[in-house]
Amino acid sequence: GAVVSQHPSRVICKSGTSVKIECRSLDFQATTMFWYRQFPKQSLMLMATSNEGSKATYEQGVEKDKFLINHASLTLSTLTVTSAHPEDSSFYICSARDGLSGNTIYFGEGSWLTVV
Amino acid sequence: KQEVTQIPAALSVPEGENLVLNCSFTDSAIYNLQWFRQDPGKGLTSLLLIQSSQREQTSGRLNASLDKSSGRSTLYIAASQPGDSATYLCAVSWSNYQLIWGAGTKLIIKP
Known about the structure:
The complex is a heterodimer.
Chain A: E1 4-7, E2 10-13, E3 19-25, E4 30-38, E5 45-51, E6 57-58, E7 67-73, E8 76-81, E9 90-98, E10 104-107, E11 111-115
Parallel strand pairs in A: 2-11
Antiparallel strand pairs in A: 1-3, 3-8, 4-5, 4-9, 5-6, 7-8, 9-10, 9-11
Chain B: E1 4-7, E2 10-14, E3 19-25, E4 32-38, E5 44-51, E6 56-59, E7 62-67, E8 72-77, E9 86-93, E10 99-101, E11 105-110
Parallel strand pairs in B: 2-11
Antiparallel strand pairs in B: 1-3, 3-8, 4-5, 4-9, 6-7, 7-8, 9-10, 9-11
């Protein structure tokens, strides 16, 4: 079964609103979580890396004030897309590293965001 | 710069054929390499994970090989079926644990 749960799997929101995506590790403590974004016909691109209890590290070109990442516990990280615009419509996926078990990385199933 | 390249970008073959998907990477000092499947409008499914110390992994009709010295991995699909139609992604992990992804190969199996 899934060891990383990502929710919601699909979400449609109106332009200008905010939407939150959750990423939970189910059976392990995720010391590090990664958020990726994939535009149509492109590869997944890393948006940010978050370590539990500290601020996320954003990749170049990713607006930290627009894509708020919170990693407040060892089992939960959230990505909030603020003031969403149609160009934010994309596939967002998280992954979590099990630091206590060989640093294996597990992936969530992803979230499809459509901004209308 | 660490990069992952997948060729071809798209592939269409008749049902029943064996096929090979290619993935190349620029830095041989990898931690591991993974192959994923992505169906349209759906999430990712992990297919095979090869650690840097391994040369291949098998799961059912799938076989993934790894040649670090040449910076290549192949995904071999035997006796292809229409249900195998999807985009196949290769992702490589280096020392910082983040994955670098290829752009994927869109595979269509014709009945």
